[in-house]
Automatic annotation (TrEMBL):
Belongs to the cytidylyltransferase family. Pathway: Phospholipid metabolism; phosphatidylethanolamine biosynthesis; phosphatidylethanolamine from ethanolamine: step 2/3; Lipid metabolism. GO terms for biological process: phosphatidylethanolamine biosynthetic process. It comes from the Eukaryota. The keyword Transferase applies. One of its GO terms (cellular component) is cytoplasm. The keyword Membrane does not apply. It holds the Pfam family CTP_transf_like. This is ethanolamine-phosphate cytidylyltransferase. Keywords: Lipid biosynthesis, Lipid metabolism, Nucleotidyltransferase, Phospholipid biosynthesis, Phospholipid metabolism, Transferase. Residues 11-131, 198-290 form the Cytidyltransferase-like domain.
Length: 373
C-alpha cells in the first residue's frame, strides 16, 4: 500500500500545545508525518531569537506523539525541491501567515503548485503571548484576562504600529472536552503493564520535562505513565512568585501531546495518598531531582508510596526548569520585545480589509480573502 507522506514545517521557536495541535491535525491528513524544524540562525534571521535552542526544539518535536520523523535544519522557505527530497506529497501549515524577513509568503511556491494544505490555528495561544506572560508575570495572567495588567500585556506584546494582527494578538484559550479527547490516547492499561505515576506542575512544558518523562518511561518494559497535574492555586502555593505561566487546561494538553504519557489526572491531589494509588493500581511512583515541598500540613506528599516501597527518585541529567526559561526571556527582554513587535509589523503590512468586512491578504500582488478564499 502506498503511503500518503506529508511534511509540516515550522520554526517551533517555543514548542507549545498550539504546535502540538497543528501536528495532530497534520497527521490526520495522511499516513506518515515528517516535521521540518528550522535552525536557530534561520529563526533569528526571519523572526527574532528563539526561546529554545535548536537541539531542544528537535527533541521536543520528536517527543510529540503524532510525529513519525523530523528533518533538522529545514529551510525557512518551503520549495518543491524540499518536498521531493523527503518524498513528501504535500506540506501542511496553520491558517496563520508565515513571512520571510522581506515580507514574502514562505509557502508561495508549493501553494501555486497545489501541494499545500492548511490546518486550523489553535486560538488562545502563541509564542508571542507566552513570552509576554513571562515578561509580565502578573499573578492573574493565567486566570483573569480582564485584569488591567493583562490588558496592558495585550497592548505591549500583541500590537504593532498599525494595530493588532489576527495571528499574533492575545486571546483566551477555551478548553473543551472534545479537545481533550483529541489529544488523549484513549488507551486503558493492559495486563502486564507497569502503571507509573508522576505528579507536578509541568509548566511551560519543555525539554526538561520530556527528558524526565522519557526516563520514567524507561523504568519498565511495558510502561503506562500517568501524570498528575496540580491545580493553578496549588502550583502557586509551592512554587510561589507568579507561577504557573500556563493554566491547568493548557498544561493538560501540553502533557497529553507527549508520546511518553498515557493518561493525565487533571487537578491531582498534592499528596500521593492511598486512595489515588489504589484507584489507579499504581506500581511505581517517580519524582525527579527537584525539591519536594511539604504539603499544607507540613507532611511529606510521598509518605504513602515510600511506605509501600514503590517510590523512586530519577535523574534525567537535564537541569532545565521553568525558572531557567523565564530567566532566558528576562535576560533578553529587549530582544524579545523587538521580536514580537517585528513579527506583528510584518503581518500588519500585508493586511487590508475586504468589502465583506473580513480580512484579506496581499501576497506577491495577489489578494486572498481570509473569509472568501
Amino acid at each position: 500500500m502506498e503511503l500518503n507522506v506529508h511534511v509540516c514545517l515550522h520554526s517551533y521557536d517555543m514548542v507549545h500545545y498550539g504546535h502540538s495541535n497543528q501536528l495532530r491535525q497534520a497527521k490526520a491528513m495522511g499516513d506518515y508525518l515528517v516535521v521540518g524544524v528550522h535552525t536557530d540562525e534561520e529563526i533569528a534571521k526571519h523572526k527574532g531569537p528563539p526561546v529554545f535552542t535548536q537541539a531542544e526544539r528537535y527533541k521536543m518535536i520528536h517527543a510529540t506523539k503524532w510525529v513519525d520523523e523530523i528533518v533538522e535544519g529545514a529551510p525557512y522557505v518551503t520549495t518543491l525541491e524540499t518536498l521531493d527530497k523527503y518524498n513528501c506529497d504535500f506540506c501542511v501549515h496553520g491558517d496563520d501567515i508565515t513571512l520571510t524577513v522581506d515580507g514574502k509568503d514562505t509557502y508561495d511556491e508549493v501553494k501555486r503548485m497545489g501541494r499545500y494544505r492548511e490546518c486550523k490555528r489553535t486560538q488562545g495561544v502563541s509564542t508571542t503571548d507566552l513570552v509576554g506572560r513571562m515578561l509580565l508575570l502578573t499573578k492573574s495572567h493565567h486566570s483573569n484576562v480582564d485584569n488591567a495588567d493583562y490588558q496592558l500585556h495585550k497592548d505591549n506584546f500583541g500590537k504593532g504600529p498599525k494595530g493588532h494582527s489576527p495571528w499574533t494578538g492575545v486571546s483566551q484559550f477555551l478548553q473543551t472536552s472534545q479537545k481533550i479527547i483529541q489529544f488523549a490516547s484513549g488507551k486503558e492499561p493492559q495486563p502486564g503493564d507497569t502503571i507509573i505515576y508522576v505528579a507536578g506542575a509541568f509548566d511551560l512544558f519543555h525539554i526538561g520535562h520530556v527528558d524526565f518523562l522519557e526516563t520514567v518511561h524507561k523504568q519498565a518494559e511495558k510502561p503506562y505513565v500517568i501524570v498528575g497535574l496540580h491545580f493553578d492555586q496549588e502550583v502557586n502555593r509551592y512554587k510561589g512568585k507568579n507561577y504557573p505561566i500556563m493554566n491547568i487546561h493548557e498544561r493538560t494538553l501540553s502533557v497529553l501531546a507527549c508520546r511518553y504519557v498515557s493518561e493525565v489526572v487533571i487537578g491531582a491531589p498534592y499528596a500521593v495518598g492511598k486512595d489515588l494509588l489504589d484507584h489507579f493500581k499504581v506500581d511505581l511512583v517517580c519524582h525527579g531531582k527537584t525539591e519536594v515541598f511539604s504539603d499544607t500540613d507540613g507532611t511529606d506528599p510521598y509518605a504513602e508510596p515510600k511506605k509501600r516501597g514503590i517510590f523512586r527518585v530519577l535523574d534525567s541529567s537535564n537541569n532545565l526548569t521553568t525558572d531557567v526559561i523565564v530567566q532566558r526571556i528576562i535576560e533578553n527582554r529587549l530582544q524579545f520585545e523587538a521580536r514580537n513587535q517585528k513579527k506583528e509589523a510584518k503581518e500588519m503590512a500585508v493586511i487590508e480589509w475586504c468589502c465583506c468586512g473580513f480580512t484579506f491578504l496581499i501576497i506577491n500582488g495577489r489578494f486572498i480573502c481570509v473569509s472568501c478564499k
